[in-house]
Amino acid sequence: GIEAGRRPRYRSIPFGYGRNLTVKPISVWGATVAWAGRPRGGGPSAARRTGRARLGSGCPLRCDRLMYSVDWGRNEPFVPNDRGASMVHRFLLCATLILLPASPSRAQTIEERYRDEVRSLVVESSVADALARVEALDAWTMERLVELTEIPAPPFMEEARARRFAELLAEVGADSVWIDGEGNAIGLLRGQGGGRTIAIGGHLDTVFPQGTDVTVRMRGDTLYAPGVGDDTRGLVVVLTALRAMVEAGVRTRDDVLFVGVVGEEGPGDLRGMKHLFREGAPTVLDAWIEIDGGGFDRLVTQGLGSVRYRVTFQGPGGHSWGAFGLANPAHALGQAVRYFQEAADTLTRSGPRTSYNVGRIGGGTSVNSIPFEAWMEVDMRSHSPESLDRIESAFLDAMERGVRGENELRREGPELELVADKIGDRPSGELEPTLPLIQRAMAATEQYGGEPSLSRSSTDSNIPIALGIPAVTLGRGGDGDGGHSPGEWWLNRDGHLAIQRALLVVVAEAGLAGLVP
Fold first, then answer.
1. Closest C-alpha among 118, 139, 112, 11 to residue 66
2. Backbone angles phi, psi at 140, to 5 degrees
């Protein structure tokens, strides 16, 4: 990208998920780095910040793009040659490795046969027509994004949005539509005797409680509303892909399900997916494609497992003076947290990455009352199922020690009781990057100018990944930020590319009817 006879200019390239640097080497050795970027969460018009650092000191700002310039420290024109280009490439590689914080994503090799498959599909007449229709349907897609965003869908209250999503599935041409026993809205596009069932979905629920104002507000060309990106945009990606396929006459060998899934966020605990993939389900799903998360390049093929507990310490309660000597639930909770942290700190210092967090605490009625209960909610996560089991066991042991210790200190009255309710259980797992679905997702991402990298996260795909079923979570595209906050925003910057990519992955995985597999 460097022109002969001219000094190099700043250049921007995609770099993973949420980073932006400007690298300006003064010389290959002892280089100084300048960084610049827009703070995450600041919106598309937020002011840019800059700074300088020596090689190896890292970048203090999380942003969206990697940028660099090469300054040779002299005024004469730069004429590239093989040696100069090689030196530039070596420097950029070293600067990237030294400067960037560790990323969970990793590049993978794409087998040429999957590139060829994708290249063949995009020029096949019906698929090419469908891909063109995606862009032509852009205004309709944005209208559906606004419409669905403004239907509240708090956890366990997704019914209204599910009904409308099901109506839209029918309107755009699904062969049959239903809402299952858990509340998932499903549309079927029948295949031509392939024998498998492929599914693509986004989640219906948002994190926002009942009563949240979900009115979409436009500021310039940017949409602001709670849930507008996460994951309402994912739902309209699914809808538009279906409409474009139906209108273009794209038929696949395998059945394809288009799904609005309940219960992805927080307390929902992936209940919609657990229902779809339960043992004995009437339809066996052979592959899952999820639309969730921002960006374009990042493909989630590794599930981040978690367990969550709500623990309650219960006792009789009483006046802080008159009933002094009774066992105190709040004191037991405090001891339990200390015991847990002592054990968890050791477990998380080495081995697969594992985390723990006491996120919420409550209880008591007044400052001069011994509480009759004290409670907390705790989140534990790990790459490794074994590590997650170990920290969960340490947690439960610490809770027992906490209540036992307080009971030993009591001077009168009954013992405290401990109630430990598991409120979340998301399995972890990892799929081989050589799986055809993952190869196709990478090839399709590359086809549309992306640089695919495989990553780990907690999404609906956790369930099939943990079961060893091919699955991938694709980003919703466009630009956005502020997820899980009232200031969430989404900008339709080349948003059609994510829909085209999703459609292409579906057709590649389900097989185009009439083509020799």
1. 11
2. -60, -45
- Cα dihedral value 111, 116, 119, 125, nearest 10: -140
Give residue 461's region: left, alpha or beta (phi > 0; psi -120 to 50): alpha
Residue 95: DSSP 8-state: H
35 contacts 25 by C-beta, under 8 angstroms: no
What is the pTM assigned to this prediction? 0.78
CA distance 311 to 419: 6
The answer to whether 132 touches 206, Cβ cutoff 8 Å, is no
Tell me: the pLDDT tens digits for 379-437?
999 999 999 999 999 999 999 999 999 999 999 999 999 999 999 999 999 999 999 99
Residue type, 369: S
- Looking at residue 337, its amino acid is V
Residue 49 to residue 59: CA distance in whole angstroms = 12
Q: What are 296-324's pLDDT values in tens digits?
A: 999 999 999 999 999 999 999 999 999 99
Q: Is 367 exposed, middle or buried (0-12, 13-18, 19+ CB in 10 A)?
A: exposed
Between CA 459 and CA 110 the distance in angstroms is 24
Contact 154, 206 (CB under 8 A): yes
Annotate 339-405 with DSSP letters as a single string. Answer: HHHHHHHHHTSSSS-EEEEEEEEEE-S-TTEE-SEEEEEEEEEES-HHHHHHHHHHHHHHHHHHHHH
CB 402 within 8 A of CB 313: yes
